[in-house]
Each structure stands twice: as C-alpha cells, then as structure tokens.
Write a structure and sequence with these properties.
This protein has about 270 residues and is α/β, with parallel strands linked by helices. It contains 13 helices and eight strands. Strand 1, helix 2 and strand 2 form a beta-alpha-beta unit.
Length: about 270
C-alpha cells in the first residue's frame, strides 16, 4: 500500500497488517517484504534513529509498496512535518490527550506546509481557505495518514471528541503506557484493560476510522479483530528475533544437556 491506499483501507474497515521496524540494515526491507504486510511502523520515540536513518527507511519501504508510518517523539506539528518531508506516508502522534493536540497534528499532516494563525483559524472552523490553496493542499497531502496513540485515561475520557476530528485516520493503542496509566501495569488480561480496548474499538468504528493495538500477542490480536479492530499492528523485528532465537538456543542447549544461561526475557518494543 501507499499512504492514500492505507487511509482508504483504514477508514473502510478493511484489514491492514503491519509491524514495527527497528533495524536499519539494507538487507532487511526485502526480508520484510516477504511477510505480505501493508505498512511498517518506524519508531523515533523510543529508538535512537536520526533524521537521515528515518528518511532512508521511509524511502526503502515505500519503494517496496509498504507504507512507512513514523511515530514522532511527541505530538509536535514541526516534528510531524519533518518526518513527512523525509518520506513518511503517515505520522503516529504519541500520548495524545486533548482535542487541541489532535487539531495541531491534523494541521501539520493534512495541510502542510501551511502553518501559524491562518492554519489554526481554518482548523478551528473560524475561516475558510482560498479555493486554489485548498485544492493545492488536498492534492499535496492526500497520501498522508494521521494515527493518534491512545495511551492514557484522559485520552479515554475524551475519546469520542478525539475520534470525531475529521482528519484522524486511525486510533492506535500503546498498551504498555495505557496499562500503566490505568494503574494495572502490564496486566493485559485485566477486565479494566479489556474494557478500555473494546471502548476504543467501538469508538473508532462509530466514526469510521481505523483502530489497532500494537502488541506481541497473537491471541489478543485475533480476539480484538473479532471485536471490530481492523489494524493488526503485531510485534517488531527485534521482538521476533528475541523470541525465535531464545527458543531455538534453549532447544539446542536442552538437547545437548547444557543448561547454560537459559532464561526468558520480555523485550518492550
């Protein structure tokens, strides 16, 4: 998919598949291509990728028809415009808790390069843009998707207002932060966490926008798709590497009677 196809699929409720990519290896994109995905999630909130690396990753994956969507470190419109200029087909805004933050992100993603008071007046519904300018901006930004990370109780309390902003294409849950904000850290089977996820799914579908949860559980991904989720944002390259090699080296050591340093660790990516 490209960004425009991604937006169409998310809003239509069609299934979209993606994973998080951390490795900047030039060999990696063609390996990922074999997974039959629609998009990749490139994170700059928790990883040390610089601007050049992010742009290289975006160019590589978009060239393989995998829409690159970049999570920026904070919901800042200037950071959003920076990664879009670098080739991102979409932006994930982390830890959004207010309508004002969503409006600011909407302006950057859907109406760049317009900025300042003129953009704010338009987004707030106070003033229309000139027809020629509006046509130019719509054409320029038609392939740029806006994802809003839902990761806190304040976001849940304002969820209907957040999802009703017409420029939001998808709600993406950050389960680790959300569970902590709910006071039940990493208790992903807790009834309160499940209640929150189903509320997010139902709200997204009510507003005809996409919805997904980024985690490492195939069981929960299946459960939530059955509940109405249409974005499967599953795992990451580093998590898959960790799980596979941990299990395989454990099997080898057990097979030869060498207990070694067998242990299981959770990698939070």
């Amino acid at each position: 998919m490209d960004g425009k196809q991604l937006i169409t699929a998310l809003r239509a409720g069609d299934m979209v598949y993606g994973t998080a990519i951390y490795s900047p290896s030039p060999i990696w994109p063609r390996v990922v291509k074999n997974l039959d995905l629609d998009m990749v999630f490139i994170d700059t909130e928790h990883t040390p990728h610089d601007r050049n690396t992010v742009s290289w990753l975006c160019a590589s994956y978009s060239g393989l028809n995998l829409a690159p969507v970049v999570r920026i470190p904070e919901p800042d419109p200037y950071l959003a415009q920076m990664v879009l200029d670098g080739g991102a087909h979409g932006v994930i805004a982390p830890y959004v808790e207010s309508v004002e933050q969503v409006k600011a992100m909407s302006g950057a993603v859907k109406f760049g390069p317009l900025k300042g008071e003129k953009l704010k007046a338009f987004i707030d519904g106070e003033k229309e843009l000139e027809p020629e300018l509006m046509e130019y901006l719509e054409k320029r930004n038609t392939h740029k998707a806006l994802f809003i990370n839902i990761e806190s109780v304040p976001a849940l309390e304002r969820l209907d207002d957040i999802a009703s902003i017409p420029y939001v294409d998808c709600l993406l849950v950050g389960p680790h932060d959300l569970s902590c904000n709910l006071g039940i850290p990493e208790q992903y089977d807790h009834p309160e966490f499940s209640k929150a996820i189903h509320h997010i799914i139902n709200t997204a579908r009510k507003h005809n926008i996409g919805v997904g949860v980024h985690n490492n559980s195939t069981v929960q991904q299946i459960e939530w798709v059955k509940a109405g989720m249409n974005l499967v944002m599953y795992s990451s390259d580093i998590s898959a590497f960790n799980r596979a090699l941990t299990a395989e080296f454990k099997s080898i050591r057990e097979g030869i009677g060498d207990r070694g340093n067998i242990h299981d660790e959770n990698v939070h990516f």
